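Box 3.1 A note on notation
Throughout this textbook, protein chains are presented in two layers. The first layer is the amino acid sequence; the second is a token string describing backbone geometry. Keep the layers aligned when reading.
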Amino acid sequence: MTRLFLIATFTLSVAAMAACGGSSNTPTAPTPAPAPPPTPTPPPMPVTDVIGQGSDTIPPAVVLWVPFTTTATGTIGATVDWTFATNDVDIALVRGTNPCTLAQLNDDTCPYVGFSFSTTAKPETLSVPNLAAGAYTLYIANFGSSDESIGYQVTLTNVPGATAMSTPRTNSARLKGVLSRLMTTR
């Protein structure tokens, strides 16, 4: 009886497998998971280079001019510090090498691309974005009552592939006093 039971169970098992479509020894591959989205390319990193630095002494009512050249489009930054907080030192940036005369500075007709004429900032800082490569001049004016020792640094921060502004920037601001002389860096 047990033999008959085993044969019957086996026959039913084979019949059930046939009813289900049979069996296959070849396994089916699982459906692959969707591919992750591509990682976006990060934007180019800005690069900041020091393109000029130095120190000098500026008498009262005198403006020092510092010419420099950039080789790429970017943000020109300038920082000027001095010794005595009682003196007022201001800075301005102009296109070209020494493009302003003493009369233009005093008459407020110098075409600044940027300036910082604060009465309280020490150091005086300036940042002008999207300037084309080329020649520029940093003006440093001492509106204090005594000689001033200054230190300055000019930087260029550029992002590869950046383009300069299509319209030139010209800002104008009234100086705080009359300057008596222009002086070049030593």
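The domain at 47-184 is CATH 2.60.120.380 (Jelly Rolls). The longest strand covers residues 47-58.
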